[in-house]
Design a protein that fits this description.
Number of helices: 10
Radius of gyration: 28 Å
Number of domains: 3
Number of strands: 14
Order of helices and strands: HEEHEHHHEHHEEEEEEEEEEHHH
Distance between the termini: 30 Å
Shape: globular
Structural class: alpha+beta
Helix content: 40-55%
Largest sheet: 5 strands, antiparallel
């Protein structure tokens, strides 16, 4: 009972925290904050503790409300720490700026959105955010996700900088993506060097030593050099992370037999490439790759069964001598019209058309090279149905989840009591007060252990709500 009461109080505090973060986030988004997207997956090993053994799965990132809560409060803290540092050390602070992208960087995003009838206004971050929020296909949630990924690709890199730099004005300090006039990195649990620098700035700004507290801080010129190195290493770390994920993806599929059904995947067309093929995205495994419908020898891919939607679809490669044609068709001369890819059968009106956001089935092959290591290679395997639209979440889902958590805690507490009675052959009613208090503490501590059954039950409940 005491445990349930404590957990109820904690739940109330967390709900309050969520409401506060939601209010902060809403105000920031109204100012033009962007909600962008990217493909992220994590690797699950046979032995998760040592991260070794067989690769069991590639898990796509799952966005939970608590992720948004934590992220928003971190952004909020970073913003106010940036303000404090700049106020105290106007020429020696380490902040992070995000320049606005060039207008032409949004050309592909505009064209892709137009193919679905959406208009993208990228004049300001606020108009871009509004456009992305409106570009929703109720029948296919992947459309908006891909448009947000294209917006991410259009962005410039955020950069660390010294506020004493002669090349920047205070208007240049702003963060375009977050819609904040000042921002820095301060809250990272991995303690990047930028965070360490800002920690020192903040400590100096609240120190009682007056001007002496700043003696150990970087000068503006030295901080400029440090920021250049951090920006370079940050970019290198991103590339290393991308290469690491690509390697694990290749290793995961290399474990499968050539005709394993797991090699046949549903994908969505996210870009047309000239008149030879297109780029697809396999969201389930975070894969993005090229598909050719016309090879360098002139042979053309033709789907012999367009009605079947499983891996039995037959794709035949027609030789150049058979006269099959592939062309990029644009209904008008307007450069903003994306068009589609059309494969024509000679002597017939029969055509196969590939449009942006069409769903296809691809086959994943793994190729090895002494020069490039193992890489994935995708080939067209047929057509696929678009995903079924998910029903809107019920308004009382949160209430149901809270009730489920409380029930799970009580069941966990009851099972532990029974187990302890069996092991010690002692009835709980015979325990003295100190033993009961100690037992409650043990239960409370075990429930907060990520290895406990409670945590597993919580995840099962969350999964059941999806």
């Amino acid at each position: 009972e005491e445990v349930c009461k404590a957990l109820k109080e904690a739940a109330e505090a967390i709900r309050l925290l969520v409401r506060v973060a939601t209010q902060i986030r809403t105000r920031r988004l109204k100012r033009g904050g962007l909600e962008l997207d990217s493909i992220e997956v994590s690797v699950r090993f046979e032995d998760q503790k040592s991260r070794s053994g067989r690769l069991e799965d590639l898990i796509p990132s799952e966005h939970l409300e608590m992720h948004s809560t934590v992220a928003e409060l971190m952004i909020f803290a970073n913003h106010w720490v940036a303000r404090r540092c700049l106020e105290r050390f106007p020429a020696r602070s380490c902040l992070r700026r995000h320049p606005a992208p060039k207008p032409e960087h949004f050309d592909e995003l505009r064209q892709c959105a137009a193919s679905k009838g959406f208009n993208i206004d990228a004049d300001t971050n606020q108009s871009l955010a509004n456009s992305l929020n409106s570009a929703v296909d109720p029948n296919d949630g992947e459309v908006n996700s891909i448009l947000r990924q294209l917006a991410t690709r259009a962005m410039t890199n955020a950069l660390y900088f010294s506020t004493g730099s002669d090349a920047l004005t205070q208007e240049d300090f702003a963060h375009y993506g977050l819609a904040l006039n000042l921002y820095t990195h301060f809250t990272s649990p991995i303690r990047r060097y930028a965070d360490v620098i800002v920690h020192r700035l903040l400590m100096a700004s609240i120190s009682d030593d007056g001007g002496n507290a700043a003696d150990d801080l970087f000068s503006s010129a030295d901080l400029d050099k440090v920021c250049d190195v951090m920006n370079s290493l940050h970019w290198s770390a991103q590339q290393a992370q991308r290469c690491s994920i690509e390697l694990f993806q290749a290793m995961f599929f290399r474990q499968m037999q050539p005709q394993d059904p797991g090699r046949f995947l549903d994908a969505i067309i996210c870009q047309l490439r000239g008149s030879n093929g297109f780029t697809v995205q396999v969201s389930r495994f975070g894969i993005r790759g090229s598909i050719s419908v016309k090879k360098s020898d002139g042979s053309v891919a033709w789907i012999t069964d367009t009605h079947s939607r499983d891996q039995s679809n037959k794709v035949e490669w027609k030789s150049a001598s058979e006269g099959y044609q592939v062309e990029r068709v644009k209904p008008s001369s307007d450069e903003n019209i994306y068009g589609f890819l059309q494969v024509s059968k000679p002597g017939s009106s029969n055509k196969q058309i590939y449009r942006l956001f069409d769903h296809v089935k691809v086959y994943v092959d793994v190729r090895e090279s002494t020069a490039h290591g193992v890489t994935l290679h995708l080939t067209l395997a047929g057509l696929a149905d678009p995903p079924v639209a998910k029903p809107a979440a019920a308004e009382n889902d949160g209430k149901k989840l809270d009730e489920g958590l409380i029930k799970a805690v009580r069941e966990e507490d009851s099972s532990r009591q029974k187990k302890r009675r069996m092991e010690t052959n002692m009835d709980v009613d015979q325990e003295d007060e100190s033993e009961q208090v100690q037992r409650s503490k043990l239960i409370a501590s075990s429930l907060h252990d990520s290895r406990s059954s409670f945590w597993k039950i919580r995840h099962l409940i969350q999964d059941s709500q999806q």
